[in-house]
Amino acid sequence: MMGKGMRKLVRPLAAGVVLVPMAVIMMAAGRYQETAPAEDVAKGKAAFERRCTGCHSLDRDKEGPRLAGVVGRKAGSVEGFPYSDALKASAMVWDEALLNKWLAGPDTLVPGVEMDFHVPDAGERTEIIRYLRAMSGKP
Ligand code: HEC
User: Fold this and answer.
1) Could you list the residue range(s) of the whole structural domain that residue 123 is in?
2) 16 in a structural domain
3) Model confidence pLDDT, tens digit, residues 106-126
4) 70 CB under 6 A from ligand 1?
5) How far does residue 119's CA lie from ligand 1's centre (Å)?
6) pTM of the entire predicted model
7) CATH code: domain of residue 80
8) Is residue 106, in this structure, part of any structural domain at all?
9) Cα distance between residue 16 and residue 66, in whole Å
């Protein structure tokens, strides 16, 4: 015999049997969505460090200009960096598509620029650009 009090207890328990697994599945899905981009950004960071840091840093100018915040920045606009006239005159604003072309061949995108380097592998370019996006506050 179930008293009124007992029934009150059983019903939430039954709901728990359904809701708890659902919550677990949703949490697992959420975690997957969080870690995938973070792993991609880590890959991009490694590629950036392998390919770019000989001439670039995120937060100071070296042989190339600082690159933190470059996504969404006007090309050739870091104050005090001695850009080529070609890049300064390009009137581009860096987005992913332009960065992809730039990294594939700077001098093809803007003849006369002075970045004597390119990244032939499209997958590696994508990783690096994802990292630069994240370092521009655009994850
Ligand atoms: C051999 C040195 C060198 C390497 C390696 C190099 N860069 Fe550069 N980069 C430069 C120079 C020099 C400039 C300035 C070009 C100019 O003024 O024409 C530049 C400019 C840039 C710009 C334009 C920035 C702005 O403020 O408009 C971006 C973006 C860039 N580099 C990204 C990269 C990335 C990403 C890598 C790695 C895949 C890389 N560079 C590797 C030398 C280098």
Assistant:
1) 37-134
2) no
3) 999 999 999 999 999 999 999
4) yes
5) 11
6) 0.80
7) 1.10.760.10
8) yes
9) 53
